């Protein structure tokens, strides 16, 4: 899976593997990208993260590589978590209680995926919202922006309501101190061209159009970071 944002400055590659239980390649790969990160490999911290992921007994494990102004590399799993497991994943995050409260107020959306950065203290969690009518599910996804960032404009909201599926995916990127990014994804990549200028004030049209033409779309999403809103397209290889 590959994603690009509409600024054209961040590319994320995600590779899924089934049945893998040996992660020796993690340290090996980190030594290759370490010169570009200026950070030391914290093996004890990594081992704790790996142990948590294995404790979930996942069938599918994935690695991700983030390229752009910031280089990041991490490991995660595709596995629904219960409340206790999610609480363990959120441990030591100052926003943990707020994230749990949001989930409680929104009918407990299922956390279906989680990952840790090997390089930094960044964590990612993705929720799957599917058990209501389409607009109800989208509204619950919108509430993530309202609670942790900035509300989406009505124009952006209306664009998301043309989703071709009832379910939505919403994600949080965070570290121990704060929420770093919020995103909402829907199944409607045909709306890319119409959405990009509405969401992003400074899109890189050349990179965006090249990516859009080369790779088949799976999901389209709005993401809010400290730099503002961008559009993300997620494609499969």
Radius of gyration: 17 Å
> Widest sheet: strand order?
1-2-3-4-5-6-7-8-9-10
**C-alpha termini separation:** 6 Å
Structural class determined from secondary elements: alpha+beta
- Dominant shape: globular
Fraction in helix? 25-40%
Strand content: 25-35%
Largest sheet: 10 strands, antiparallel, barrel
Number of helices: 8
Q: Using DSSP, what is the number of strands?
A: 10
Low-confidence stretches: none
Tell me the series of helices and strands, N- to C-terminal: EEHHEEHHEEHHEEHHEE
What's the overall average pLDDT, rounded?
A: 89
Total of domains: 1
How would you characterize the overall build of this protein?
The structure is a single chain. By secondary structure, this protein is α+β, with helices and mostly antiparallel strands. The protein has one domain. It is 34% helix and 32% strand. The protein contains eight helices and ten strands. The protein has helices spanning 24-33, 43-55, 83-89, 96-105, 134-148, 154-160, 192-199, 205-214, and strands spanning 2-5, 10-18, 60-68, 72-78, 110-117, 123-129, 168-174, 179-186, 217-225, 228-235. Strands 1-2-3-4-5-6-7-8-9-10 form a ten-stranded antiparallel β-barrel, surrounded by four helices. The protein starts with a strand and ends with a strand.
What's the arrangement of secondary structure elements?
Blueprint: E1 2-5, E2 10-18, H1 24-33, H2 43-55, E3 60-68, E4 72-78, H3 83-89, H4 96-105, E5 110-117, E6 123-129, H5 134-148, H6 154-160, E7 168-174, E8 179-186, H7 192-199, H8 205-214, E9 217-225, E10 228-235
Antiparallel strand pairs: 1-2, 1-10, 2-3, 3-4, 4-5, 5-6, 6-7, 7-8, 8-9, 9-10
